[in-house]
Amino acid sequence: MNYHNFYQQSILTRGKFWGRKAAKIAWYKAPKTVLTLDKKGYYKWYEDGVLNTCYLAVDRHVKEGMGDHDALIYDSPVTNTIRKYTYDEVLDRVSKIAGALVSLGVQKGDTVIIYMPMVPDAAFSMLACARIGAVHSVVFGGFAPHELAIRIDDAKPKVIISASCGIEFEKIIPYKPLLDQALKEATFKPDACMIYQRHMLKADMKKGFDHDYEEIVSKSAPAACVKVKATDPLYILYTSGTTGKPKGIVRDNGGHAVAMQFSMDYVYNVHKGEVFWAASDVGWVVGHSYIVYAPLIAGCTTVFFEGKPVRTPDPGTFWRAIEQHKVNIFFTAPTAFRAIRKEDPNADLLKKYDISSLRTIFVAGERCDPPTLRWLQEITGKPIIDHWWQTETGWSIVANMMGVEQFPVKEGSATKPVSGFEVEILDEAGEKLGPNHEGYVCVKLPLPPGCLPTLWNDDERFEDSYMDKFPGYYLTGDGGYIDPDGYVFIMGRIDDVINVSGHRLSTGEMEEIVSGHEAIAECAVIGIEDELTGQKPLGLIVLKDNAEQSSEGIEKDLVALVRAKVGAVASFKTVVTVKRLPKTRSGKILRKTMRMIADDKSFQVPSTIDDPAILEEIKEILVSHKIGLVSKKQF
Ligand code: COA
Ligand code: AMP
What is the CATH number of domain 501-632? Predict the structure, then answer.
């Protein structure tokens, strides 16, 4: 297939193209309209279509004779478990979980929060919500109670589904006390909780409010699929913005289902009956799209992995599972491969396994750095495909579309725009930039199916964050350029969002927490480069003159405070005290300049700087504390 023609059709004959793609999924009522614009000026996909996403992902395959085919393989090196679930079994389980939710009063349109570790019931609970038209919001297990509380207050869930504990390497993390604390902090109170009790740690239950998950599910009558409109919300997934309040990304049912099926066909080139493995977590968008919905909608077997790339038990764990489950397509974050490479640089463990089933490895979550790309190409001999996307879009904006036409890989580029995404680079004035000129990476409206229609209960923030800067365009928040061959290079965020081990975090939020400490006069949190995690947060603090504690004591306090408020996943471990922060004459802290100093990159001293000597002071402090790439330089 010719990429250029295929891509052009998706833009120039949008209605026809996406109308045909919609025919690949099963609808209760097939849509007559493909794309409409509402009174608010928001685009809607397949507005008059009626469907059910759980039906597509589960029931449909059972109906079509795939009931005894594996739908999900739970591979958990941390509990020494491998358990396969057929489509029949998934249907049975999901229908009963849906029944349990109904028995607790959950109806179409209600919200349900899922705060669970990587147990298959996390996926089944998501599908159960979809089945009855309830809107799920999965909260990543690594977030602290405060983060969960913010999401409870915003999503207002009727029911929360959680578990007694998660397992991080050899550590057991009790989830229930975190949930209880979040419920104490939140203003909104759900009607009930369903707690999945794991045998390694049982949670204390509140009578009449906490329900034993297994008990209520086993007692419940199966619930049938409920018809929903294509534009009804399937889920909310909160992601980091630039402030302490995360953004509730909304996903619809119809556009999402079409996009999931389309991406399996044309981006991943994987088909019914094949094995697809995205090694991520259901708490992230990768988990939503490519552990749960897309592989099941496409009739694949999804591998559901509860472990890490290393130390569970060793850096050969991915290769072992690929051989054991005959994985065809594998997808994870580059940071996971950097962790493997650090421990097994010659890939000795890979030699023990037969990975011949594997066709392609996809990476995303952060830019794939060339050394990792080369290493992977060398050790596996497989195509390594970097693709760029975001929670907001739910699927890739730029990729090498393996089901259309495979292009040679260029290091540092995610290749070309995916069908439906008109990617352009704009300058500050909104003018389109030519090849090789770096600027704001934007997507001309309308976005293709599957992307966010708005933010949960917050149209104003949706417009302000994404639509207002350049009218007619969606602002991705990333900077980058397109080369003369049409390859897109994403160079990093243009806002206060950082990427630590493939996890998206807000430095703005960390700053809000740090500045709340009584001893802090002012502060900045910036993301600096890190060989293993991609980026890591660094706090720079200026103490009040009357601060009573030592600076070391305050630095330790702040690390503990951010961990308690955001969670361990923030990886906020480095804080340094400085005498002053560099600012413009109008008082704006020069965060980008400090980042460039820490990363040892060349930069222009801003002409608006108040006192350039502060930059030298910052550099000296970083070097003396051995922080950042700058400290590794030979002076
Ligand atoms: N529940 C509770 N705590 C969690 C958690 C969870 N689900 N996930 C992470 N954490 C904790 C970790 O235990 C760690 O705590 P610590 O500071 O006490 O050690 C902290 O959060 C940071 O975790 P992480 O950044 O994941 O570091 P790690 O050392 O545990 O693992 C990697 C490093 C590279 C193996 C891991 O980050 C990884 O697999 N990353 C890939 C991410 C990914 O899939 N992203 C999705 C895009 S594809
Ligand atoms: P998330 O919403 O958590 O998926 O994070 C999205 C952000 O991660 C993007 O806006 C990018 O900054 C970054 N990102 C994800 N994938 C890539 C990639 N392949 N190349 C470069 N940056 C990426």
Answer: 3.30.300.30
